[in-house]
Amino acid sequence: MQDSSQLKLEKWKSLLLRIDINLEGIVCEKIYYPYKIRELDVYKFRSFYRDLSGESFEEELSILNEQCINEFELALNRKLPEDYKYYCQVFGKGIFGIKNICIDCPDIGAINEYLGSSQGILEACLETYRFEGIADHEIEQLIENALIFGHGSDYLIFVFDLRSYDEEDKSCEIYGLKYDYSNSYIRKIGRNFFTFVRDSIVGEGLKREFPELIFPLPVSEEESLARGECRYKGTTFTPIPKYDSLEY
User: Fold this and answer.
1) pTM recorded for the entire structure
2) What's domain 4-239's architecture?
3) Residues 198, 235 contacting (CB under 8 angstroms)
4) What is the per-residue DSSP string for 183-234?
5) For the segment 81-101, what is each residue's pLDDT rounded down to a tens digit?
């Protein structure tokens, strides 16, 4: 019989089976892996790309093991949502197609820099809310205790409220924060990280329930959606190489 942790990993692997893998993040070309898979395997990707193009790449995937996640929690001095930790062990950092939503995983090779970058973005978000007159005490406390785990275009970030971690469900409250001047929003999304990824990122939940966070799209993305490009489908995932920095 599988133990609880293995079953939870399998849940994420089953979700991965539904997703098309775009290798553009690691080979800089729009190339799709032709098979549905339960595990991301950089060695299989290298072999596939070498057979296809005759060239090679040496990038590593940003998937984390349990030891790395524990190291990050120790540095953070907070507990991460359990489902997020399993996500980082199966998917790693990467971009989900529709609306280009990136789910990040900690950079274990540069923890202080990673947390410093996150803090800088949160401070910019708070300054925008203050400028617009919507930064009350609760919002300031939320941002002070937030950890960014994802982002989209147009000044959109997704955060965990680390104050809200509960041992019973091993989860935190999830918020979407948009901090574009004169177009800012704060939306509480829920607590279940797996449901958030499955239904709101891979599925259509974000567009249906929180359209103000992701619309309007940049013109180039609207055109690409109209053409039906695979990279803009919610079921496309682009792995980002280990330690590659992303702009928020």
Assistant:
1) 0.89
2) 3-Layer(aba) Sandwich (3.40)
3) no
4) EEEEEEEES-HHHIIIIIIISSHHHHH-HHHH-SPPHHHHHHHHHT-GGGST
5) 999 999 999 999 999 975 578
